[in-house]
UniProtKB/TrEMBL annotation:
Source taxon at top rank: Bacteria
Species of provenance: Paenibacillus zeirhizosphaerae
InterPro entries in the record: P-loop_NTPase
SUPFAM superfamilies tied to this protein: P-loop containing nucleoside triphosphate hydrolases
This protein's name: Uncharacterized protein
Length: 279
């Protein structure tokens, strides 16, 4: 149904961590078909975040050419790509609800002219099967694949920080890829510090931001889960912990962000939400 791209003007702003967190929450808490994928060349940190629960399968996936983005690309080129069979080439993280598409094993140098249209067409096809496709795309303003995907996205989550210089650069729009201009956007501040003078309210006011602004607070346990490659396991264990749990504020904000994203793409979050304890 919809493509949600996570994009950032710079590296290291939590593009991958934020997309992994939102993807895990949607996959666990909502009864919709969700796909998470990255389109970077030579950066498998998104798969890495989920490695622990699926270590063996992911290794096999990486070694085989019959799965992941490269396999879909081959199918597309030979006109054999079908929406319903895309999930056969993904790793199921949560049966029927959350699939992970492993990214290309190719280097950027091996990309060919027009690859951006092939990749965009693959996700267009995937939209016929998945209700939400969450993409961790290469940041910056120069990548043709990202630019094409920004154009095809139903929603772009722009990952920023509380660093005023980089916010000023973003707001000036000087380095915006063309694909970002006309899309539906929301801003997500990563590793958020609510005690900073530059909190969400002040940032919004100072820069006159019209797009919705959300924030995921800095969370030590999330950092550890990401480093331990166990994002999904940690979400499974801890996401419903009570108010006194140290990671409660993080989960609250991931939940809010996930809900807003789904609402923006037209998912009825009341109906599709899975009651606690049912799943
Ligand atoms: N909310 C958070 N709390 C704690 N650590 C975070 C948070 N968001 C990101 N990080 C850490 O910041 C680092 C960089 O994030 P990453 O998602 O890899 O950035 P990007 O994809 O934008 O380059 C990662 O090591 C990650 O663990
Ligand atoms: Mg990244």
């Amino acid at each position: 149904m919809s493509i949600i791209s996570f994009w950032s003007p710079e590296h290291g702003r939590g593009n991958t961590s934020n997309s992994a967190a939102v993807g895990a929450m949607i996959g666990l808490d909502y009864d919709i078909r969700t796909l998470i994928a990255r389109t970077q060349f030579g950066d498998s940190s998104l798969e890495g975040a989920f490695l622990k629960s699926k270590e063996l399968q992911l290794r096999n996936f990486a070694a085989s050419t019959a799965s992941g983005m490269d396999a879909l690309e081959r199918l597309f080129k030979t006109k054999r790509l079908e929406a319903a069979s895309i999930s056969n080439h993904t790793l199921s993280l949560e049966p029927g609800r959350l699939d992970l598409l492993t990214g290309t094993s190719k280097s950027y140098e091996s990309a060919y002219e027009g690859i951006e249209h092939v990749i965009a067409a693959i996700f267009e096809e995937a939209k016929r099967y998945y209700q939400a496709i969450i993409l961790d795309i290469e940041g910056g303003s120069t990548n043709a694949v990202s630019n094409q995907l920004l154009k095809s996205s139903d929603l772009v989550v722009v990952n920023l920080s509380q660093d005023i210089m980089s916010l000023e650069r973003y707001i000036s729009k000087e380095q915006w890829p063309s694909g970002l201009q006309e899309t539906n956007r929301m801003i997500l501040l990563g590793q958020y510090d609510p005690h900073s003078k530059y909190n969400m309210t002040n940032i919004r006011r100072k820069f006159g931001i019209k797009d919705p602004v959300f924030a995921l607070p800095y969370c030590s346990e999330y950092r550890d889960a990401f480093n331990d490659r166990d994002v999904l396991g940690w979400f499974r264990r801890s996401r419903n912990a009570g108010r006194r749990h140290g990671s409660y504020p993080f989960f609250q904000e991931v939940r809010k962000t996930a809900k807003e994203i789904l609402a923006q793409i037209g998912v009825n979050t009341e109906i599709k939400h899975i009651e606690r304890g049912v799943s």
